[in-house]
Amino acid sequence: MKIKLLFIISFFLVNSLHSHELNPSRLYIEEIDTNTYKVIWKYPTNSVQEGGVIFPESCVEYDKNLRKLEGKYLVDNFFIDCQSSLKGKTIQIKGLSRMIDALISIDYLDKKSFEGLSTVNNSQIIVPIEENRYPTSYFSLGVEHLLSGIDHILFVVGLILLVSGWLALIKTITAFTLAHSLTLGLSVYGLVNLPQSASEAIIALTIIYMALEISEKKQYKNTPWLIAFGFGLIHGLGFAGALSEIGFSEDSMLLSLLFFNIGIEVGQLLIIPFVVLFFWIIKKIELEKAIFRTFSYLLGGIGSFWLIQRLLIIIF
Questions:
Q1: Distance between CA 209 and CA 181 in Å, rounded?
Q2: Domain presence at residue 143
Q3: Roughly what angle, to the nearest 10 degrees, separates helices 166-188 and 253-284?
Q4: Does residue 163 sit in the same domain as residue 263?
Q5: Same domain as 305, residue 227
Q6: What is the H or E stretch that residue 283 is in?
Q7: What is the extent of the structural domain holding 155?
Q8: Is the pTM of this model over 0.85?
Q9: CA separation (Å) from 235 to 141, 206, 270, 305, 307?
Q10: Partners of 116 in the beta sheet?
Q11: What is the pLDDT of residues 210-225, one digit of tens each?
């Protein structure tokens, strides 16, 4: 009866968690003639607000196509004609929220570029006059994607529970990092391809597997990094799917990928100390067995829900 209750709770819980998935909007601007720009605006369909862009008063929109649905995004394509350069001007994004930021990219005729991030607390971006050489906005997106990606967080927590010893834990997290960095890079460059729906379904399977291992009280002491590396390859494809939907400038692809990946790792490292401290306290007050069992049931229920949900998306 307790097991059934935990599974029911996890099924209700997962709906709440899933609704907080990070889906940043995307504004891509390309200068095609002096002070004339091609604009692509992508806004997530799961937002309760309507997103939009407010350009400087000196800019006029024209040739706006009908809005299209592309995956999780509504896409607008149009042009703007400005009396002067966008450099030094302000661009404002409407409809942002705590989980919906806006990544802004501008490519100029002179091959210079700008990358910025607009948030709910800072919806206005002043386009700098000087070029910013490094797409650091992807770092922030990487951190947010990891911290809002509940499936990835649950897997990392599961790894921590299964690994015995600090050295083994460091090796395991490093292997997981290297593996998903590898498939993330290969996927972005088109060398490895797996539909995001399929990779997300497999990620759900890894969570179910982790739940079974925890329920059997297994402790990996010898080569835990091998299983972490294998599953990291799958999770990297999930990260790649998110990055490809967000989009990036072709001219800064490598740097964008690097900063996004560093952001993921920082987000991962922010989680580990809190999880380790929590379970150290649990062990000290002798609630370890009960917590591990409860966590395995919740993890199994959540993973099962996601697997069914993602398989239905593939089928239908």
A1: 22
A2: no
A3: 150
A4: yes
A5: yes
A6: helix 253-284
A7: 2-20+149-315
A8: no
A9: 17, 9, 18, 18, 14
A10: 104
A11: 888 888 777 766 677 8
